[in-house]
Amino acid sequence: MAGAPVEALQRVPLFAELSADEVQQIALLFKERHFSRGETVVREGSDGAAFFLIESGEAGVSVAGAERESLRPGDYFGEIALIDEGVRSATITATSDLVCYGLTFWEFRPLLLENGAIGLKLLQSLARKLRAAEVT
Amino acid sequence: MTGVLSLEEVSDTSVFGSKAVGLGEALRAGLPVPTGFALSGPTVEAVAAGDERAIEAVTAALRPLGGPLAVRSSAVDEDGANASFAGQHVTLLNVPSVEELPAALREIWWSANSDSAITYRKRVGLFTRPSVAVVVQLLLDPDTAGVMFTQNPVTGADERMIEASWGLGEAVVAGLVIPDSYRLARSGQVLERRPGLKRIAVRTAASGGTFEDEVSSELAERPCLSDMELDELHELASRCEQVYGPARDIEWAIAGGTLFLLQCRAVTRAGSA
Q1: A47 in a domain, yes or no?
Q2: How many domains are there within chain A?
Q3: Is A128 a domain residue?
Q4: Terminus-to-terminus CA distance in chain A, angstroms?
Q5: d(CA A73, CA B137)
Q6: pLDDT by 10-residue block (mean), chain A, 136 residues
Q7: Which of B49, B110, B115 minimises the CB distance to A43?
Q8: A103 touches chain B (CB under 8 A)
Q9: Are B165 and B212 a contacting pair, CB within 8 Å?
Q10: CB-based contact B102:B47 (threshold 8 Å)
Q11: Which has the least CB within 10 A, B26, B145, B147, B236?
């Protein structure tokens, strides 16, 4: 079946407030993307166009040249780019052949514009994240 | 399905992109273009999304083409916005058969939706969603290939400029070699013939894709076009100008002794894009 697995998306905090049906709507918008070992998935400082969820394989993460914890199946990155198209905060490189599910903001935004309830719940998730950041 | 047409039938740039329509015009005018199909932007999107019905329809329609295949993007706004997407949207050469076509279409779709492509679109003032149509043709296994300007792109002089190398034209387009260069008068007379240094030939790999093949030192320096082939290229330049108008940028290949037109577009002068 096309799209990303719903259960994996339900673990993404940005989507935590959404019902299973709402997550299903988003899941269907994802497309599979394959990267070869050694390929750069996203580059720190470049504009972000998509959110990725790892289906299989592993990816290395570096910030300003410093290695961070690597990513594995079920891990995800770039979800905030769906909202703000902001720049990538890290470079992610496939350390094995990598299969991801990707969602671009071009495809995500029409859903938000058509479905205010999903938009409101995402706002609530972001607000919660903001409050948590203020506390720490 | 209307999202898949043979190249001869393609005429709508808003659905199939300028590359597909240009090749359709060339075929209708009798120019020697390799046979193939055009897939519309929505069709490519549906296949990339894993839509089983779209995948079945595309593979059924293109199966008679056989293989191996050359799969190239034909973005619908490539020319309309004064922007060149060269280097942003990938071309996949030597896709073994239609069975591997869905994965190839997915890769091309993502090339138009990558971080770098989106960054580029914003930089040139394109804030609309990319739509990427695709041209699928039988892949040639050329002996020689290259590019040709029907008018000097730098000086504007009324002369043909030809660059050529062994194997697939990607060696010339990607700057992997110092190609042979030829300058022809509008009459077809050879004004200048400068052999290059072609140490690499890009060739098709048995397992799919391409590889860089080392060229012997004797062949690397030997001119790869004969006088007869230069005559044929001159004739092709004239026919392209009759069909499309002056100042054309042409990609060509010679396979099995036959000259083919791979692409014909308006010359983009340096700094105008």
Answers
A1: yes
A2: 1
A3: no
A4: 41
A5: 36
A6: 84 89 94 95 90 95 94 90 86 96 90 90 86 78
A7: B115
A8: no
A9: no
A10: yes
A11: B147
- Contacting residues of A for B107, CB less than 8 Å apart: 34
Name the residue range of residue A64's domain. Answer: 6-119
CA angle, corner A35, sides to A32 and A36, nearest 5?
145
DSSP assignment letter at A87? B
* pLDDT bracket for residue B103 (50, 70, 90): very high
In the predicted model, what is the mean pLDDT of chain B? 90
Provide ipTM, 2 decimals. Answer: 0.85
CA torsion, ordered B105, B23, B78, B168, to nearest 10 deg: 70
Rounded distance between C-alpha atoms, residue B259 and residue B255, angstroms = 7
Compute the distance between CA of residue B198 and CA of residue B165 in angstroms, rounded to an integer. 6
CB contact A121 to B (< 8 Å): no
Contact B31, A13 (CB under 8 A): no
Q: Is residue A65 situated within a structural domain? A: yes
CB contact at 8 A, B137 and B36:
yes
Q: What is the DSSP letter of A47?
A: B
A42: contact with B, CB 8 A cutoff:
yes
DSSP B168-235: BTHHHHTT-SB-EEEEEETTS-EEEEE--B--EEEEE-TTSSEEEEEPPHHHHHS----HHHHHHHHH
Burial of A54 (0-12, 13-18, 19+ CB in 10 A): buried
Distance from CA of B86 to the nearest CA of A (A): 19
User: If DSSP codes are grouped into helix, strand and coil, which group holds residue B244?
Assistant: helix
The answer on pLDDT for B83 being more than 70 is no
- Structure-token pair, residue A100: 């991801």
A69 in a structural domain: yes
User: pLDDT tens digit string along B114-172?
Assistant: 888 887 777 777 777 788 999 999 999 999 999 999 999 888 899 999 999 999 999 99
